[in-house]
Structure formats: structure tokens, C-alpha cells
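Lesson 9: reading folded outputs for more than one chain in a single document. The general rule is that every protein is listed as its sequence immediately followed by its C-alpha cells, and records are never interleaved. Here is the first one.
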Amino acid sequence: MSKRDYYEVLGVSKASSEKEIKKAYKKLAMKYHPDKNPDDAQAEESFKEVKEAYEILTNTEKRQEYDRFGHAAFDNSGFGQRQRQSGFSGSGFEDMFGGGFRQQSQGFGGFEDIFAQSRGGGRTRPRKGQDFEFNLSVDFVDAVKGAEKIIELPINGQQKKINVKIPEGIKDGEKIRFSGKGGLSANGGPSGDLLIIINIRSHPVLKRDENNLIYTSHIDMVTAALGGEVEVNVFDSRFKLKVPVGTQSGRKFKVSGKGVTSRKGVTGDLLVVIQVDTPTQLTEQQKALLEQLKATFDGNK
């Protein structure tokens, strides 16, 4: 298969300066580098092609020969063969990034290290240690009101006790971060962080909708029809709620400011949802009374 024009490979024109060629090469080299495209054979071939074009067009003598004779200028020079044998070592990438590429060329090395070495005169930039994540299950009440838990976790080969302060109003899936409590750095950098992911257990009668609390109150059909009162118990708050005559199942009553206070200090409302329960086990007397009631409805038709 015939080779593409070197200028076309780098996306530059024949009139481009060496500075423009280097700029174009750097952009493409970063795009196709094997560290950023693992197990991508096409990217690897593109990287080779880009590097070959760069080494020709930034060499004054070779560029002049290429401009006069094209690829034929190097048919007998063994250039293409030498490139295949040498892999990715050579002047192009090293010259641009401070020599780090040759050290990393076997197995392609760490792409981040290449640029770190060019900035630091051959020294690898210190890297932050690995972040550790652990799940912590907490009760619904603890998530809403806040709590403090002492847990034991395996960190850096040791069992460590961590005092976890669960903030008031934390949501399911939110994380509590302990900076510098994670994995150790391999080369003198800062330690990683410890992240505690909060999993909230369900509550038998309460649910949360953003900052609102939803409380389901069960009443019988007589109370729903004639009206009355229901007792609402939410955490440490207990009060009676008036149920109007003819209340339907699913009706909501809002109690302002009795919801969840978020981590940002915003407090929602308490929504009391009425659930009218239909009796399933009636006595004979109750059945007779309901039949009488039903007869009065039928007489109104």
C-alpha cells in the first residue's frame, strides 16, 4: 500500500514552518499515542506514520530531498526499514518532550510520565495515591437527623478505626471524604483520599422526596367518611391531624417546615398521605350494618 503524503499526514502545507510542523505533530502524537489508545492497532499505526512524517519534515536535508523526489528519495536509504526496526525510539518524540520517550518506549510506558519528565528535567512528577471507597449502610433516621459512627476498615494493609460523622440530611449515594486517608503514593506524592459511600436503609412508614418527608397514615373507611383525627408520629414529633369529612384515599396534607434539612441548610415539608383501608374480616353484625348502609345508598338512586 502506498504511503500517504507526509504533509497530509501532519495536516500541514509545504509552506509550513518547522514550528508549525512541530505543533501539528505534538497534537497528533498525543491523540494516537498507545498509552491513550491501548490495544488499538489502528492508533498505533497512525502514531508510527505521524512520527515518520515528523522526522523527515523537521530534518532540513531530508525535507529538501522529499520535496524534490517524494517517498522515492528514501527507497534506497533504508529509512522505512530502520523505522520499523527501531519501533518508536528516535529523535522526534524525544526532542519535543525532553528525552522521556526513550525511557518509556518499551511497552509505551506511562504517557503522563513522558510530559512530567520534560517539565521536571527527567524526574517523574509525584503522583497522588489511590482513593479508597467503602460503603456504609445507615438507618433512615440517622441520615435525616445526623449521627456519628465508628467503623473499622482495611487501609494500606492495616485495620483502622474511622470516626464517621454523618451530616444531617445526607442523601443515599452521597460520599463523605477523608482527605489523605487513602492509598500511599509510590513516589513521594500525597496520599489518596478515603471515600465513604452512604447507603440508607428504608423506613417502614417514612419516605424521602428531595427535602420533603412523606408519611403514610392509615385510616378506616368510617373515619374517612365521617371525619375525625389521626395521630402522626415522625421521629421525636407527635401531633394530631384533623381528617375532614369525605376524605379520599391518597389525599395529602402538608405540614410546613417539618421535612428534611439538607446539607445546605434547606428544610422541606412533611407530607401526610392518607390511606383508606378497606376491612377484609367483618363480623356478621358489621356486615348487616353495611348492608343497611348500602340500602340507603340504593334508595337515593
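And here is the second record, again sequence then C-alpha cells.
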Amino acid sequence: MDRFGDVEAFLAIVERGNLSAAARHLGRSLQAVSRSLAALEKSVGVELVRRTTHKAQPTDAGYDFYRRVKPALLEIAEAKAEAGNRRAEPAGLLKIGGPELLGPRYLIPIVARFMETHPKVEVEFSLSNRFVDLVQEGLDLAIRIGELPDSDLKARRVGAMRRVVFGAPSYFVRHGRPHHPRELTEHQCIFRNTDRDAGAWQFQDGGKPLTVKVGGRLHLDNAAASHAAVAVGLGIGRVPLWQIQDLVDSGRVEVILEAFEQPAIPVHIIWPAARLPLAKTRLFIDFLAANLHMEQRNRDCIAI
């Protein structure tokens, strides 16, 4: 039996609970499955499965080995099928995570086009503003906005998003238009109390970081309400441009202080380092990057 078959037998033993069930599942003889397991254990140099008369239990080393080789075997099997033209079209379940606000506006339309292009792929989409544990949540990949902390995740940068200061023309008529970030201290500023930079807006002035303490009379805990408050002239806001692009396009708000913007916020796709992304996952990553690039050409809120 080849080494691929040995690993396949090992996985079946772990998943089926004993050698006999694994043999039936694989359509092999009990002796062949037993030889495959023995050959694999000899190759890696440790006991992977502890056998009894009716049960086969993975050892600690066996469980760790299973966790690493399972996704790799799936990838190899899919690659073999693709090479042999047995699966010309990607198929199966793709579990994706993404930010709650970004999902409906940008990600869902892209997912819809992806599913239309690949009708055999099923998608499960989880939208949340918290940084979820991909392995614990069972996600194949997730979209993250912002700098990534050090972790054991793999990542591919697929874009960046501007963070802008904006206000309604009616507000500027009544209160004037700030020309430098420091002038914001004299204006009504609107932000969510839960924002990371609530009351302390970050800029760049001459290539150097600048923090401006801002405040206002209106306090909100909802992003959409904050955008609406700025649009009706209650104050000045600061958000990622993609969140208010419709308001900008319609002329209800105007972007100001562009010369003082911080570098754009990176957007990444991340996936577990211990998991080789399957063909459908790699295909979606490429598809998402290309479609975000298309959005950037149509608008100025996302850049690749």
C-alpha cells in the first residue's frame, strides 16, 4: 500500500473507532488496514493508535497527527480529482466569517456572484464585529479589517480602506469648515462611545502622528445612527469611507481634511495555519480580491 493509502487508513480508523469499521468504509481487508497502520507508525516512529479487541483510540501523538494530516489529505484528494478531471467544478461547504457592517454592503454581493459562478459551492456566512476564533467556530476563512496581531493564522492582504472625516454641507454653512484637525476642538463631533478612538481622533500632520481630543453634545452607540446624525447636520464624524460612501455619492455629506488622513486600514483574509486551504477556499480568496479591486475602480473607498 502506498503512503497516501496508509494515511487514509489511519484517518478512517480514528473516525470509525476501530479497524474493522475502517476496513468496511474503505472497502479493504482488515489485514490490509492493519498493515497500513503499522507501516505508518513505523514511518513516523511513534504509536498513533492504541488498539483493544473492539476499539481503536488515538494516542496524544495520534490525535495531533490526525489534526494536521486530515486537511492535507482532503487537499491531496481534491487535487487528484481536479487533475483527473473528475471534479471540474469546486463543490462543498465554505464557511466564512466577516465584519457585521461590511457584510451586507460588500461581502454578500461578492458571495452571491461567487455562488452564481460556482453553483456546487454552498456558503455559510457568519457576520460578527468580534474577533472570532476560526478553529473554535469551524470557519474556513474570515475577513478582518485592521492590523493583525501576531498569531498562528495565515493571511493574505486583499485591500485597504480609508478612514475619513465628514460632515453635512448644512453644518459647514452654519459653523464653518475646519481646515486643520486641531480646529475640530471647536466643533460638535459625533462618535460612538464604544469606538476604539472615541474622543481621540488620529491624524497625520507632515508625516507625524497627531491626536486631537474631540467632543460633542450628542452621544450614540450605533454606527448607522451616527452616520444619520452627521447627515442631518448635527456634527462632524470620522469613519471608514465605505460605511458612508452612499452619503458621499448623494452629496448629503462631504469628506474633509483629506490631507491629514492616516494610512488606509488594511483588509485581510485569514485562515488557520494548520489547515491547507482547499481549492474552493483558494478560489474564493482570489475572487474576493478581484472583486474588491473592481469596487476600488468604481469608488474610492477600497484600495488593493
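What the second record shows: The domain at 3-83 is CATH 1.10.10.10 (Arc Repressor Mutant, subunit A).
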